[in-house]
Specification:
The protein is 42% helix and 12% strand.
Length: 756
């Protein structure tokens, strides 16, 4: 019985990769130093997996920016604007991902969006109708040699051809991306042949599209692909995750693959379906440890569910996480500040490998002393969870009525009241919320957390930063201001630290994209708000100007999705609890004189089930959670929300049902393509399409912003439009932000003259 690792986090337990990347981008280290740090990280991660008992070590889970982008480079599928004279190298990846690298010319970055229903962002491959593929980048092959030189067996892990095409976008002209499959398969075959020549025995091809409700042409592509790619000596492990693939059983069970990986965390019921038709020599990789959450597994229950399968399959049963551990923090051992009661409930990536080892013990020798100790440990954790209920929160949720979810009047009535109150010009300008988190701000926060300065000194300095941020916006001529969020470490963690029922870690970092990492809170109990969280900062900022200053909150659905949430109650129940906590804050902001309040929901679409037939239930409760948070205010209070990197076409009715007065969205990288959904639906409320790609250091020109907004005005009535960046400005520097906003305001003045 083998242990199978589908992939490991690459950032390092202290974010070593993040800091190395950013130093390289700033010119503080050479590329050779970046690659040395990366090599050391891979060595440590392989060693940990080997020590846990994993024999086939994953290669291909490491990426300098994104593993999908690495595959695009391997296939030679890099946009012409990002290519340099030296061919495809590390800097090419950075030009594609962020629009800039230490070498080569700046160019607009490629589009970035969420990887299925996760908070991980991938760089969308751009494919043309005459696209050719050829091995053009050797990182994967070099890493196979690297792990072999350490004395280990390599198992390359790459995205399968069908998922690669599915996640790509057509550029230049609209065409059937499946028309590229034959030539793409030829290049995949060359890749597999090269791995075979390196002595590789197994390769893992990931096809998460199998969890979707695929149309017949995409199903046929799966059959064609795995008939072609299993003809050689290399053994193929076909992996799918994030949902059940039982609806694809008749297709998948006929594929001539050597092994199959199933996500048995999200869909345990599919186990019996596939075991019944497993080939006599086929391996089953059972994904029974949750790769997307941090709660320690109930190993005794898992062992009971797997016991008969283990007896039947013996060595053909592999024990695995449900998916790559990319979505998990790295190492629980470095968490020294967690309470022992909470810490015993947790398991990070390194510990999840140990859980696999313990599960193997339970399955192999359930009567051993070691196995009995594991069972006692599991029962102790379950008992501790049951004691954490907050009856007051539970009673408040139970008492909710339909009216608690609705504003007093329809949008048209509210809009008239808000326009009378605020007297904003045509095309009001605003930003999404955060301004640069400078080294000085981060250093200040670090000194406060270490006890080197008092809370009063810390807040005094933050007030000065806030004052400076407001003054800069006034000088720029922004119409609706924000306070800049200097006091916030993260848009979710900040709230998690102030809510009851929520804990947080020191080093529980997870990669979101590139060098961007987030530290999700731990929702371990019933959630409530013991005190105001943002009111003092909003009041202070508003006292500095007569212009409106937005109160800035993170919405309940996003707090849920960007946290590690408890698993003993439904996500709907958790979202409702958080919605009530945010509602309390919204009402208190209004009562403090804050007339515009933004409740961000960038993760709204992320929570969609992979199967469309399951969408409506999710959309119903997600919309209700947002409406609950916003519905306690008067008509004059203007509610904004923000969403980024979302495909809106299929969820536009739900977004309209949220009934936010203003929605701001990311549209600059898509060149306003995302607005098609709002045009086709005839979206009734106001919209701020982003015109400044904040994920790139490049400065948008006045002409570019004018052009984008002119496109927007062709899709949405100009009276409904706002002008704003794509997202918050936290990750940028003032040297980048101010010129961009100067251009944004200048472009808006031109647009007011030409579009009025």
């Amino acid at each position: 019985m083998q242990l199978n690792s589908l992939g490991f986090p690459r950032i390092g337990r202290f974010r070593e990769l993040k800091f190395a990347l950013e130093k390289y981008w700033r010119g503080e280290i050479e590329q050779s130093q970046l690659t040395d740090i990366s090599r050391d990280l891979r060595k440590s991660h392989w060693q940990w997996q080997a020590d846990a008992g994993v024999k086939l070590l994953p290669v291909g889970d490491f990426a300098f920016y994104d593993q999908v982008l690495t595959l695009s480079a391997t296939l030679g599928a890099i946009p012409e604007r990002h290519r340099g004279d030296a061919g495809i190298d590390i800097d090419t990846l950075f030009r594609v991902g962020r629009g800039r690298a230490p070498t080569g010319n700046d160019a607009p970055a490629a589009e970035m969006t969420k990887f299925f229903n996760t908070n991980y962002h991938y760089i969308v491959p751009e494919l043309t109708a005459d696209q050719t593929f050829e091995i053009g980048y050797d990182q994967l092959f070099e890493e196979v040699s690297e792990v072999q030189a350490l004395g280990y067996q390599a198992k390359p892990v790459i995205l399968g051809p069908v998922s690669f095409l599915y996640l790509s976008k057509s550029v230049g002209s609209d065409f059937d991306r499946l028309s590229l499959l034959p030539q793409l398969l030829e290049t995949y075959q060359k890749i597999l042949t090269r791995f075979n020549s390196q002595g590789v025995e197994w390769i893992q091809l990931d096809e998460p599209v199998l969890a979707l409700e695929l149309e017949s042409d995409w199903q046929a592509a799966i059959s064609q692909t795995y008939t072609a790619l299993t003809e050689g000596d290399l053994k193929v492990l076909l992996a799918s995750y994030y949902g059940s693939i039982a609806h694809q059983h008749s297709l998948v069970s006929k594929l001539p693959v050597a092994g199959l990986h199933l996500d048995l965390v999200t869909a345990p019921q599919q186990l019996s379906t596939f075991v019944a038709t497993l080939g006599q020599e086929q391996v089953l990789s059972a994904g029974v440890i949750n790769g997307r959450n941090v709660w320690a597994a109930d190993l005794d229950n898992i062992a009971a569910q797997l016991s008969s399968v283990a007896r039947d399959l013996k060595q053909r049963l592999w024990l695995a996480p449900s998916c790559s551990l990319l979505h998990s923090p790295v190492d629980l051992e470095v968490e020294t500040a967690l309470s022992p009661v909470l810490k015993q409930q947790l398991s990070f990536a390194k510990q999840k490998l140990t859980e696999l080892s313990k599960l193997k013990i339970l399955l192999n020798d359930a009567d051993s002393v070691e196995a009995k100790a594991i069972v006692v440990e599991c029962r102790s954790r379950r008992s501790a969870r049951a004691e954490a209920a907050n009856q007051q929160v539970i009673a408040r949720v139970t008492a909710l009525t339909e009216q608690d979810y609705e504003r007093d009047d329809l949008f048209a009535v509210r809009q008239a009241a808000q326009r009378q109150k605020f007297r904003l010009p045509l095309l009001p300008t605003t930003t999404i919320g955060s301004f640069p988190q400078t080294l000085a701000i981060r250093g200040l926060r670090s000194r406060w957390r270490k006890g080197e300065i008092s809370l009063e000194q810390y807040n005094d300095q933050l007030r000065q930063v806030t004052r400076d941020t407001v003054e800069r916006q006034l000088k720029l001529g922004i119409d609706v201001l924000v306070h800049g969020e200097a006091e916030r470490n993260d848009m979710v963690e900040y709230f998690g630290e102030q809510l009851d029922g929520v804990g947080f870690t020191q080093f529980g970092w997870v990669q979101s994209y590139g060098s961007r990492c987030v530290k999700p809170p731990l929702i371990y109990g019933d959630v409530s708000r013991p005190a105001a969280m943002t009111v003092q900062w909003a009041e202070f900022a508003q006292s500095l100007t007569d212009k409106p200053v937005k109160g800035m909150l993170t919405g309940p659905v996003t707090i849920l999705h960007w946290s590690f949430a408890r698993e003993d109650i439904s996500r709907e129940q958790i979202a409702t609890q958080i919605g009530l906590a945010i509602r309390d804050e919204v009402v208190e902001l209004q009562n403090a004189g804050i007339g515009i309040i933004q409740i961000d929901e960038p993760a709204f679409r992320e929570g969609l089930p992979l199967k469309k037939s399951d969408w409506q239930h999710y959309l119903n409760w997600a919309v209700n959670a947002f409406k609950l948070s916003a519905a306690g205010v008067t008509n004059e209070t203007q509610i904004h929300t923000h969403m980024c990197y979302s495909e809106f076409n299929e969820t536009i009715a739900a977004i309209a049902a949220m009934d936010a007065d203003v929605i701001t969205i990311e549209t600059s990288r898509s060149r306003m393509e995302l607005l098609n959904a709002f045009e086709d639906f005839n979206y009734p409320n106001e919209i701020g399409p982003g015109v400044y790609d904040i994920h790139s250091p490049n400065t948008p020109t006045v002409d570019e912003i004018v052009s984008l907004m002119q496109k927007a005005a062709q899709k949405v009535p100009v009276e409904q439009l706002w002008v704003n960046p794509d997202c918050g400005l936290k990750t940028r520097t003032w040297d980048e932000v101010e010129p961009a906003l100067v251009n944004l305001v200048a472009a808006t003045k031109i647009l007011r003259r030409t579009l009025s």
